[in-house]
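Question (not urgent): is this output format expected?
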Amino acid sequence: MKFLQGLCQLLFFSLAVCTNLFGQAPYAIRLASARTSGINEANQTLGADRYLQRQRANPAYRLAEANMNHAILSYNGTLDDSYTLPVVFHIIKDDPTTVTDQDILDALKDLNDAFSKSGNYSGSTGANTRIQFCLAQKDPDGANSSGITRTISFFTNMDQDLEDRRLKNLSMWDPKRYVNIWYVTDIKSEILTTFSCSQWTRYHEAGYAMMPPGNDSTDGIVVSAFGTLLAHEMGHYLGLYHTFQGQNCANSNCATDGDMVCDTPPDASTTNSLSCNQPQNSCSSDTLSGFSVDVPDMISNFMDYGNDACHNAFTEGQSVRMRVAIASQRVSLLQNECSKPCTESSIAGFTRDLPYPIPGNTVHFTSTSSGATTLEWDVNGAPAGIGNSFSYSFNSSGKYKVSLKAYNADPSCFAAYTDDVIVSCGVTARFYPDKRLIASKLPLYPDSIYFTNRSVNAISYQWLMANNSGMVEQVVASSIDLNYIFSNPATYSLRLVASNLACSDTSEKFNFQVLDPRPDGAISFSMVDCYDNTKIKLQLSVCDNGYAPIPANTPVSFYDADPRVAGAHLLSPTFFLPDTVLGKCCINNYGHILDAQKSGLDTIFAVFNDNGSTIPVALPNTSLTESDYSNNIQSAKNFQYHVTITPSSATLVPGDTLQLVAQAGPGSTSSFKWTSGEAISCTDCNNPVLIADTNITKEVLATSEYDCIDSAFVVIKVPPADDYTITLDSIRCSKNDSLAISFSICNAFTKGKIPKGISVAFYDADPTTTAAKPLGPLFVMNGETSLSCGSFQHIIKGVDKGAIYAVVNDNGKTIPVSLPNDNTFLEANYANNGALYFYKPDSIQLTPADTMVMRNHSFPISIVTIVPNPSDAIWSPDPGYILSCYQCAVPFVTPYNNTVVKMEIINPYGCVLKGQSTISTYVGGGLTVPNAFTPNHDGRNDIFYVLGGSDVRLVSEFSIFNRWGDKIFQAHNVPANDPGFGWDGRFQGKDAEPGTYVYFVKVSISDGRTQSAKGTVTLIR
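Got this back:
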């Protein structure tokens, strides 16, 4: 399965269950997939996810993302059959008790059903991901736990840009060990912001998640609902991108393009049909990644946007990607936090009476535990009290960890519950914007953002603003809310300082972009045609890539050459826009006729927002100011009406016919007229048939629908017809001293034949040089063929190897060869009479080649050769104990020691070819020494030698002693299993006496060790 390359995608993703910020009811995000011609698509969808953009602005995050994608792409480890990940739910609500434990269990079951294709999702066409989730049964300190925390906080309505860290600071378990899920009421955000035809469309999201590798203080998932929303965000958490990632159809490599999963089809649209049964098909590049046909967008996929009711499936490719992400990037989650550390059934829990304490407050904690006889309280790890209730005075600001331990007789087996108490001065600065991306510039195109203040316990405020265009941070207002009109585009930052006189708090910095709203005009030609010979008829489209509208009467000037350099001439008349063009919008197919005052002009340039007053053109030269002038010039060429004839020329033989086809364009043609009826079938058609007789030239005149005229010519030649060529098909060794050449001679003349007496000469080098020598004898046709091609064989005196040249219709008498020569036949072309063949002698190879096998193990040995139909193979050594047969194609070899198998075959031309294979043997175990041998020359057990296993590299010492201690044989550094290096039972040239002899053996093992053996061997005669 292919995976991904990917430095091009975002680290955090949002779900498609959204609410239109204009007040519409929740529905699946929908964006028109069709783009207006001329608009820059990247600018139509603006700020897809501000949370993602903010994270990716950090180089460390971009590096982490790149490492994550690389790890998933290159992972080649082992995946477990299934994975179970521990989750902890942090319920952040005004009243978190309204969310029951059963609600959480139901949400967890739905999540597991989504990932296992069961329950409500059993009927989907998706895959079982083999990933499941459990409520953590062990807390970070090793105690029994329910895996659920509850916190009262106004951050249940949180702003993603400003309060992500503050939300997660309320309660987080170690992100390396647990999947943290924060459940809130609402998320302030803005995604998939679009601007089209002067209208903004804005959406906010219901959840977001961090992609792998995560593991920092913001790692986890935030959702405002469960169901498919949670499945979607869990997909992001485990490395999945949106199915429409990149919002294009790029699919040159499905492992690195789009969502980087090959079994999800390319998808360029974030929207889809409200009907689950009628999805649109936004891309036509599906078959590049293995789909047999182009398929609709996969709106049933959990990682798609669109109709949320359709989402019910992950694919197998997504399953593999998530499992690889777990095995490589989130492997620290696999620590079995799903099992209780001990069997105690007690449950720990408590509430407190003061959700937002300030220094000096005493907070009262009340246990909700059950099943325990002993309750112990601690603060920041220090014992602080016992019993069902507990009070604690917090004297200074900070974050305090308050824990309750519940147990019975065994204090080492306990349940625990922890609440992070955040003590502050009592003021919290909070706000959110009604828009997060705008375009504004005074006085051209003013726009504003309304910042709603929702600070807690404050009575005075300061709004601090700065930008990257010279505005240092400064107080811009002290009102409760802020409605700010932006005079200039820039990247801005805003902070709110809230105070109650006794203390103050400063919000996180909100970074946002105010875009340049100036219009940006661009034009394109949809049609350009010659008109009445000296005029040009065109249609053009005008687009505004900016935000402010382009007013009517804006000029478009035309030139006969590039107006940016001297020499161009202004064409008339100038075109003036009849309509206002709205921002990020196009008006198509305006008609216009230019008077070139000459025929043949085939290039025009159009300049948008140009009054035609200067050449070279220097913009701006009108009252309309644009953000970009580099795209104001468009050109068109090759629009003049032209006619062509196919073929434009031809060489024929007498009596042949040729279909002529005249084609003209661009545009439609009203008539064709051939200047003469000689040798053609019609004069007022575009496709006459020509009958070849003699050399002739024909002309056609074509007239366009706009009365432009052009002409073309076709030249017909009728030269000599015969044209001989030769092809060398094969060259084989013949009788060991010659070459058998198979070749073909063809006559390109369709009515031709191969005549008697035509010859073929052969050479050992390029015959057009003096280095060539003829290879005899000369081939001469002794008969005549009735066909235009024939196959022949010829024997010449051979060469070992190298280039063989052949020349047809050559008498072989002159070097360098120059055709025609004596007694040759006339041809239309002599340049193609040669052929070249690189001859390489036939060879054979045995398979297996040199190999090592176990002693007395039988295996087949066969021949590999390109020789066609070789005669029977002759094998050696003779059949018997080693070979099963002597003349067969595939004998079986049974080696009892190291040996060499040889064979030879005869090719069809009598050449003998030889091959061999060296077979090394080994025995089972490390070292084996026989205890007797019979050197009686019967071919069996005649030699006493060392036997070794496959790991024995060398016999470093092999010594044999008689009973008086005399060394009668010795060998050093010889191979095992080879009788050629053993004792043949002779000493000092004579047969040794029968009896018992002592041996000593030392061998080297392949892993660097040595092994020794000593013993006795009996010589039997």
